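Write out this protein's structure.
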Amino acid sequence: MSLTRHFTRGRDLARSAGDHAADVFAPLALIGRGLRRHADWAKARWAATPKERRGPTLLVGAAVVLGVFLLPHGPLLAIVALVASAAWVGRSPKAPAAPEPDAADVKLPALYAALTPYFGGYDDPGALYRVDGEWKSAFSEWAFDPDGRPTALEIAYPAYFTDTEPAARARIEQVVQGKAGRSREYRFDWDEESNRLRVTALSPLPADIAAQRFVTAPGEIVLGFTDGAGSHRTIPVEQGGVTEQQPPVIWRVGPRSAEPHLLALGAPGHGTSTLLRSIALQALPHGDLVVVDGASTGEHACLVNRPGVHTVETSLHGALAALEWCAQETERRLVALNAARHHGLAAPPDVTRPLWILLDRLTELSELAHAEGRTDPQELLEVPLRHGRAARVTVVFVDALDARDRVSATVRTCTRTRVVLGPVTADSGAAALGGPLDIAPAAHTPPGRGYARIGTAAPVRLQVPVTVDPLDEDAPAPLRDAVVALLPHRDTRTEAAAPTAAPAPANLAKEPIGEPLGEPAGEPAGELAGEAGPGRPRPVW
C-alpha cells in the first residue's frame, strides 16, 4: 500500500472518529453551553444588584439552598432541574432566514445581459449597454407582481438602434418576452422620439362569457370581448351568474360600413367555428343566412331548417349552387335598389333585409373543385364581395390559419375586417391581420383567444363568446341550453317538440305559398329546404 493511500485512509479514519466524538459529546457540549449562559446571567444580575441589597440577596439564596438540601431527594431534583434548564438554554438559536432577494436584482440584470448584444455599441466606450455596464442606467421604471414577474418596464436604448425596422423590433420583443415569461401577453410601445421602449404585461381576458343576446344596435355584431385599452365602450353581459360590464369588439355592417366583410383564420380547435356560430346567432334576428360547411364536420347542423336560414350546405354540388344563387341574388338586389332610387320609391323589404353568407373551410371545397375540374367556389364570391355593401350582403369567410395561401386574392382584398385565433407568432399574426401586431402573443392560449383588426385600426385582443354546438353531447349542458335559447324556433333534435301552432286566420291561409325548392340528386333531404318569410323570395338553384 502506497504512502498516499495510508495518508488518505488515516484522514478518513480521523474524520470519522471526529464525527463520532462530536455525536457522543454533543449533549455534554449542550449542557456546558447552558451552564455557561446561566453563569453569565447570574453574574450580570449580581452586577446589576445595588450593594445595599446584596447581603439580603445572599441570605435568601442560602436559605433556598438549605431548604432544597433538607427536602427528601432535594439535591437530586435540583441537579436534574439545573441540567434540564441548562440543556434548554444551551440550544443554539435558529439562524434567521436569509431575506428574499429583490426581484429586480435577479430579473433585470439577466434581461440587461440578454439585450446587450442587440443594443450594445462595441466601438463606443460609453455605451449604455456593455458587458460590465450597470443595468439601472438602462431601466428607468419597473414593476413586479407578487410572484416576481415583471408587469411594467421602461427600457432605454441607444439612438443608433434601428427601431423603425420591424425585424429589429421583433428580435428585441422576442428577447424581452423570453426573459419576462412566455405565458403572458405583452404590449410593446416604441417611443422613437425619446428612444424608450415601454413593456406592459396584459392580464388574461375573461373566457367564461357564454352565448347570449347582447345589447347592440341593428347592424352591430359582437365579435368578442377585449380589455379596456381595446374598446371605449362596455355592455352588460351575464358572467358567472352575475351581470358584469365588459368592453366588446364591435363590428358594424351595412350599407354605410367601410368594412362589410370578415376573414377569420385560426388554428384547429381554437374557435373559428365558434365565432361563426356566434355571428350567425346575432345575425338571425335581423337577416337571412346561407351557410356552407366545407369541412363537412356538422358544426352548423343546428341551423338546418331554422327560420331565416336558406340552406346549410356541406357538399361541393350544394355549395356551388348556393353561391351561384348568392351572386344572382346580389345582382337582383342591386337592380331593385337602383330602380327604387331612380323612381324615388322606398326599396322593397326583400332587398333591404340583410343577407349573410357564412363560409367555414371553403378552401377544402376549392381543392376538391380543382381536382374534379369544376368551378372554384371562391370565384363565385366576387360579386357578393365587391357589391355586397350596397346590396346588404355580408360575407364571413372562416378557415384554418395554414390555409391562408389558398384563400383567393379577391377574398383577401375585400375582407377588411380580420380575426386570427389561436397561438400565433408575430409574423403569422401580422400576415393574417394585414398589419403589424404590437402585442407579443402568449405561448399557450385558450380556445377563442386571438386578435381582431377592423379596417386600418390597430389590432386588439379578442376572446370569442363560448358558443358551443348544441348537438355536441360532450359540451356542458348549460352552454348548450344557452345556444338553443338563441335559435329562432324549437327543434326536436335538440329539445322537446314545440307545441302545435294555432290555425292561421282565413285571410292569411289564402295567401299563396312559394313553391318548395327542388333537391339536387344525391343531397340529403331537408338540407336544401329554405325557409321563406313575408316578402322574401326563396332561393332557386
